[in-house]
Amino acid sequence: LARLAYGQGSDSSLQATRAALDAMAVALDERLVAKLGLPPRGDVVVVPTGSLQGLPWPVLPSLARRTVTVSPSGCLWAGTGTAGPSGVPGLHR
């Protein structure tokens, strides 16, 4: 991701990196998100465990062009007491 974000490398290297990222994103999306049957639009709150907390969730195809909120726990997210744009506590853009 850093290589793509900062344009580090030759054009062919960046293209290969982008292709690898796209393939990994599709594979992770199929395993983690697609099977959930989410509606095609709408905000998403993700409460991942372990190493999934560092995953750049908006890179996954099912979550692209959505507002994605990542929280370390559902209780922390729901307990913020602040309603977001859809009236859901803790959801901020």
Number of strands: 2
pLDDT < 50 stretches:
none
Helix-and-strand structural type: mainly alpha
Helix coverage percent of residues?
25-40%
The SSE string, one letter per element, is HHEEH
Radius of gyration: 16 Å
Mean pLDDT over all positions: 84
Instruction: Work out the helix count.
Output: 3
Beginning-to-end CA distance, first to last residue: 23 Å
- Major β-sheet profile: 2 strands, parallel
Shape: elongated
3D architecture notes:
The protein is mostly helical. Helices cover 34% and strands 6% of the residues. It contains three helices and two strands, in the order H-H-E-E-H. It has a two-stranded parallel ribbon with strand order 1-2. The longest helix is centred in the first third of the chain and has 22 residues. It is elongated, with a radius of gyration of 16 Å. The two termini are 23 Å apart. The relative contact order is 0.14.
Short description:
The protein is mainly alpha-helical and about 90 residues long.
Primary descriptors:
single chain; mainly alpha; 3 helices; 2 strands
Set down the secondary structure blueprint.
Elements: H1 2-6, H2 11-32, E1 44-46, E2 68-70, H3 74-78
Parallel strand pairs: 1-2
